[in-house]
Every structure is written in structure tokens, then in C-alpha cells.
Write a structure and sequence with these properties.
By secondary structure, the protein is α/β, with parallel strands linked by helices. It is about 50% helix and about 15% strand. The protein contains 4 helices and 3 strands; from the N terminus they run αβαβαβα. The protein has helices at about 1-30, 50-65, 85-90, 105-110; strands at about 40-45, 70-75, 100. Helix 2 (about 50-65) runs parallel beside helix 3 (about 85-90). The longest helix has 29 residues, at about 1-30. The protein is globular.
Length: about 120
């Protein structure tokens, strides 16, 4: 039962994220808005069993190899008590646009996004 609920949850979550990205692309394409890139923020806490699969799925399914559209994927760790942050940092070594931070550092990045 838990597997079915998790499958439904992640399917809906990825579909929602896909729709957001699709709408951003539609807006920038058809309204001639200029964008410095797409930012994705993922807040995580104690998800060591799921974080690697989720991030790799996000990178593969959402980006389709078009990393030039993504300015940053920010993984904000909410004081995890397990190895979530270490796993995310391992993946961030493979992708330069993936950053692992604390929630406070993430807020600072958001506040200064217009300055970069």
C-alpha cells in the first residue's frame, strides 16, 4: 500500500514540476520575456533512501539533456539527521548546476539572485 501511495505521490509531483517548467518555457517563448535561467529549489529532510533517485530523475526527466536552460538546482537541507546532505553533495560533484546548501544559505541565494 505504501509503495502505491509513494508511486502516485512522485508521479503527481513530477507531473506538476513538468507543468511548471512547460509554463515557464511557454511564457518566455510567446511573450518574449527574457530570463537568466530556470531555478529549481528542492527542500529535503531525512530522505537518504530517496534523494539520489529523485535528483537523478529530476535531472533526466525534466532537463532532457538541456542543462543550458537550468541556471541552478538548489537542494536546501532542512537539518537532516541522516546522510541526505552527503548523498546530495556526491551528486552535486557530477553536475555543476546542482548546489547543496542549508535553508538559510538558500534564502540568501534567493535574496541575491538579481545581483548574479
Amino acid at each position: 500500500m505504501e509503495f502505491i501511495l509513494n508511486t502516485i505521490f512522485w508521479t503527481l509531483a513530477l507531473y506538476g514540476l513538468f507543468e511548471v517548467v512547460k509554463n515557464i518555457i511557454y511564457i518566455t517563448t510567446y511573450t518574449k520575456l527574457k530570463s537568466d535561467g530556470i531555478y529549481v529549489i528542492v527542500a529535503v529532510k531525512n530522505q537518504e533512501n530517496k534523494i539520489e533517485g529523485f535528483l537523478r530523475s529530476l535531472i533526466f526527466k525534466i532537463l532532457y539533456g538541456k542543462e543550458e536552460n537550468i541556471k541552478n538546482i538548489i537542494v536546501a537541507d532542512l537539518k537532516s539527521q541522516d546522510k541526505t546532505k552527503e548523498i546530495a553533495k556526491k551528486i552535486s560533484n557530477e553536475y555543476e548546476f546542482l548546489n547543496v546548501t542549508t535553508w538559510k544559505e538558500c534564502k540568501d541565494i534567493i535574496d541575491n539572485v538579481n545581483e548574479t
